[in-house]
Structures are given as structure tokens and as C-alpha cells.
Amino acid sequence: MKIINKVAELKATVGEARKAGRIIGLVPTMGALHAGHQSLVDRARKECDVVVVSVFLNPTQFNNKEDLRTYPRTAEADAALLESRGVDIAFMPTVEEMYPEPDTRVFHLGPVAEVMEGAYRPGHFNGVCQVVSKLFAMVEPDRAYFGEKDFQQIAVIRAMVKQLGFNLEIVPCPCIREDDGLAKSSRNVRLTPVVRKVAPAIYRTLKESLRFAEDHTVQQTHDWVVTTLNAYPEMEVEYFSICHGITLQPVSAWDESDDIVGCITVYCGDVREIDNIRYK
Ligand code: PAF
Q1: Is position 37 annotated as part of the catalytic site?
Q2: Top mutation candidate among 26, 27, 29 for ligand 1, by most atoms within 8 Å of CB
Q3: What is the 223 CA–ligand 1 centroid distance (Å)?
Q4: 88 — phi, psi (to 5°)?
Q5: What is the pLDDT of residues 132-145, one digit of tens each?
Q6: Among 40, 63, 117, 214, which is least packed by CB within 10 angstroms?
Q7: Rounded distance from Cα 31 to ligand 1 centre (Å)
Q8: Nearest to residue 32, comparing CAs of 81, 96, 99, 102?
């Protein structure tokens, strides 16, 4: 595995592979790699000739400075994991290398980017689009792999790809969970032991809501999920949206669409956890 820190070297190395007709897969990450990332890397390894993984803690997508400050940083362990999974290139640039000048681009991606995370984390998706569009331009991958835990992020990146005319396939990959159902996340290490014990209630409640939804309305199901989780003193739901799986706009009846997903954000102590479940 080559560890590359410079954009010029990345472009030259990937450029040669492209010229040789090789299929290039990109897995963008912010490091602190876990089994969720590993599943993206393994999928890319199966489907592509050359696998590039970017490890870059992107400051422009953090609307909360404290979240950026406390985000786990494990560069050495990340490199070791990527090497062990047969990755070809680990791209690990500095902030100055990625942003030699401030990125002043503002993306207008419409309603998919304005609801949920878009409403509660102003600027977050703009920062995600800044860094992901830079990575797409540098690597020009044939395929890029993203986890479905960040369900809305995939919809936003698809919208950006369409708007900017990138010629690549976005490959969504299933959320990977702990044995007790908690979605794997780099932020899980920040949960206190007490909060870690109750956090699996998020996915448990979402799963139970599938059964509840069979004989209740969308609004009743929404309220039941929120009330059930808020009954835990350690947790507070920030939002729960039962929405159309493509447009991400809220639905008001189960027969409104064949594609309905519930997306939730819950504060577990001071750690913000997100998760989702498919109703249809
Ligand atoms: O999902 C993430 O880890 C980040 O948002 C991404 C896509 C790597 C961009 O920094």
C-alpha cells in the first residue's frame, strides 16, 4: 500500500492506473476507522482493480467546533487496517494540502439537503460536498462507496454528482452494527459506559416501530418512537423523520409511497448518534 500525502502524487499515481484501463474505487473516510469502514473497503476491493481510501478529517463539515476537537484521530491504526485489507492507496493529506485556499463554494442542492441534517447542522452538507467534490476531481473514480448509516449524505452526494456532472457510480453499502444493534460509528468511543448501555435502544425501538406501524398512522408511529426513546434519561431525540426514501421529504400516510424510511438523530449524553430504518 502506498501512503500518499500530496494531491499531485495522488493524481499522477491514479492517472497511470486509469490510463492502463483499471477500474478505480474510492472510499472517502474521516479516519477513526471501524468495521463499518472496513465493509466499504472490502466491497471496493472486490469490485475494483485499484482501491483508494482517503483519510481526512474535513474541518469544513463540522458546524460544531467541539465535535471536531473531540473527533477521534487514529492515523497509525487506520493505515495498518487499510494495509491489512489490501488497499492500494491511502490518501492522507493535511488540511493545507486539501485547502490551499479557503473553499468558498456554496452548493445549492435543493430540498434533499435542506431537511434533517441540513436543517439541524447548518453548513454541514456544504462542507461534505466541498471535500467530496475535491476528492472526486482528484481521483476520478469509477465507483465511490458510502455507508447507508448516513442515509441523507448519500442522497446529497447523488444530487451533487448530478449537478456537477461527475461520471461515476455511487455505491451505497449497508450499515454495520455492534452485536447489540448500535450502529458502528467513530463517535461511539465517546459514549460513557452508562450511555453506551442504553444506546442500543435506538435501533431496537426503530425495529419495534416496524411492527407498531402495521396498525398505526405515520404520526402515531413517529410519536411512539420519540416518546419511547425520550423516556431514557440519558437520551434525547433531536429529530425523527418518516420520509420518502429518495426525496427525503416527510410523508403523512403509509400509502403515499413504496419507498419510506425513518431517519433519526438522538443525543446520547453529549454524543450525537444517527440511525435509520426502512419501512418499505
Ligand atoms: O461520511 C464521512 O465520513 C464524511 O462525511 C465523508 C464522506 C468522508 C466526507 O468527509
Answers
A1: yes
A2: 29
A3: 30
A4: -85, -45
A5: 999 999 999 999 99
A6: 214
A7: 9
A8: 81
**C-alpha cell read off for 200:** 442500543
pTM over 0.85: yes
Closest-CA residue, ligand 1 atom 9, reads: 128
Strand partners, 29: 55
214 pLDDT tier (thresholds 50, 70, 90): very high
Q: What is the mean pLDDT of the chain?
A: 97
C-alpha of residue 56 to centroid of ligand 1, in Å: 8
In the sheet with 235-244, reading across from the earlier edge strand, the strands are 235-244, 260-268, 271-278
pLDDT of residue 198: 98
d(CA 248, CA 267): 21
**Which domains can be identified in the chain, with CATH numbers?**
2-173 (3.40.50.620), 186-274 (3.30.1300.10)
Phi and psi at residue 92, to the nearest 5°: -125, 75
CA gap 209, 8 in Å, rounded: 50
d(CA 215, CA 268): 29
